[in-house]
Amino acid sequence: MKKYIALFLFTFIFWGCEDFLDVNESVDNDQRTTPNYMLPAVLGNMAYAHYGQAETTAYITQYVTTEFGFNAVKDYWDYRSVLRVGHWRRHYFDVAGNANKMIIFAEDEGSDNYVGVGKVMMAYSFLTTTDMFGDMPILEALTGIYNPTYDSQEIVYLEVEKMLDEGIEALKKADPLTNRSMTSSEDHIYHGDIQKWLSFAYAIKARMNLHTANFQGSYDEVLTNVDLARDNWAEPLYAFVTNADSDWFRNLWGPSRPSPQWDFAEIRNSLNSSIHTTFFMDAMTLSGNPDPRLFKLTTPGSNGNYLSVPASTGRGALELDDFAVLYNGYWTKDDSPYVFIPDEELYFIEAEAAFYANNRQRAFDAYVNGVSRNFSRLGVGADFQTYQQSQAMAQSVDELTIADIMMQKYIALYLHPETWVDMRRYGYSQQAYPGLEYPEKALDEYEGKWIVRLPYDPQTEYIYNPNEIERLGARDDQWVVTPFWWIENSTLFNQ
């Protein structure tokens, strides 16, 4: 992986910026390359983008809260003085910009394997970004238009599906005899295994379909894509180096608090000054006893306690040593992986879709499989049977509720950004998330409304595309609590 450090920076500087602004093209330097040199940058940038989304949403979804309760963004949801929202730039410049060039180069040389992977990663990046922001440029994005129109999220979703379909078609056409070689040196996810990339593409479709199935009546489509994803399924996992000697090769959730370049300083992890919320800790005691997974996700404080506080309140007079140490858990080591869609998520997508499709037996089986997989992942599989027989889990098909599914998905996707999508689909309701409480320090002007989106990047959009910002009303202080398309249309609120 080390040989790609220079490449990562090179592709950002020479392709990321040129794609969006289409200025300052050099007449002396060749701006073309071959797609094998670009794929590592696309995947590495998406890994960093995935972390950035997770670091922001972990506080909103109440996995963790700040130690003192005074952080403007994390505790108050106050974005009025924020100078950068880097998720926007990471999508357009780092991931989509590089993927777009890679696709062009791959199409020119007839390498369908790189075209397919590029389309899948482009779709994944657009999907996760629109789910953070709502409306965004897609039809005019990456075309050289300086002030691209923001398309409605409904259009973005249609275009993402189109990208996935095109990616699937290219992957199915890929011919190892004529396409450029794709090995573990280029593909840090699947090492060139096209069938696994196909499965990942269908899993993305299943996730995307689930976001809108409640008002589009497409739960059967979700289940079809789950079935297609299961063929040759392997987790889309981005690995990191053990005992790495550079921040470039460390998981950004880790205790070394990596900051590989200036841009990532804004998302350097704050787990050293964060603590668990009461909502999360209640989820970890659903059985009446401490969930054995808790001890794999975290380590105990020096006093051996696992205290918690309501979101945004801070620890007050409590000792920090009475709270869990958030580092060196399964997901928070320097060499922990990023998994774009975990095995458990695919099971819980299936469980939720089958539940609403009135296939309750399939829903129950998928629900059990999702929890079991999480126990085995965390190395406590031997404890699953006892947990399954406790009050923490539904004991039969007839007992299964949507709260059973969503709370177990919440636990299984610890520190994962998709949890914020789930909470917003359900309007943060007690039906899906019993015991979830509105943060005490959220700004009074929100009048009890939950945060549902992020503001656009002030350093680019509010300066260079002000007409679109004004058209959308995105300067309004209420913007972050203003629902977008799939939230407005959701039928899952307070059922």
Any chance you could write out the topology, listing elements then pairs?
Elements: H1 5-21, H2 39-60, E1 64-66, H3 72-76, H4 86-109, H5 112-133, H6 153-173, H7 194-216, H8 219-230, E2 237-238, E3 274-276, H9 278-283, H10 294-297, E4 338-339, H11 343-356, H12 360-377, H13 384-388, H14 402-412, H15 418-425, H16 461-464, H17 466-472, H18 485-488
Antiparallel strand pairs: 1-3, 2-4
Describe the structure.
The chain is 46% helix and 2% strand. Mean pLDDT is 92; it is low at 1-29. The longest helix is centred in the first third of the chain and has 24 residues, at 86-109. The protein is mostly helical and 495 residues long. The protein is built from 18 helices and four strands. The chain has a domain at 2-31 and 87-238 and 449-488: Serine Threonine Protein Phosphatase 5, Tetratricopeptide repeat, CATH 1.25.40. A two-stranded antiparallel sheet has the order 1-3.
Write out the strand line-up for the largest beta sheet, numbering strands in chain order. 1-3
Distance between the termini: 49 Å
What's the CATH architecture name of the domain at 2-31 and 87-238 and 449-488?
Answer: Alpha Horseshoe
User: Which sheet architecture does the biggest sheet show?
Assistant: 2 strands, antiparallel
* Overall shape: globular
- Rg calculated over all Cα atoms: 22 Å
What share of the residues does DSSP label as strand, in percent? Answer: under 5%
Q: Give the ordered list of helices and strands.
A: HHEHHHHHHEEHHEHHHHHHHH
If you average the pLDDT, what whole number results? Answer: 92
CATH topology of the domain at 2-31 and 87-238 and 449-488: Serine Threonine Protein Phosphatase 5, Tetratricopeptide repeat
As a percent range, the share of helical residues equals 40-55%
CATH class of the domain at 2-31 and 87-238 and 449-488: Mainly Alpha
Task: Name the poorly predicted regions.
Answer: 1-29
Helical run tally: 18
Helix/sheet category: mainly alpha
Extended strand count: 4
Oligomer classification = single chain
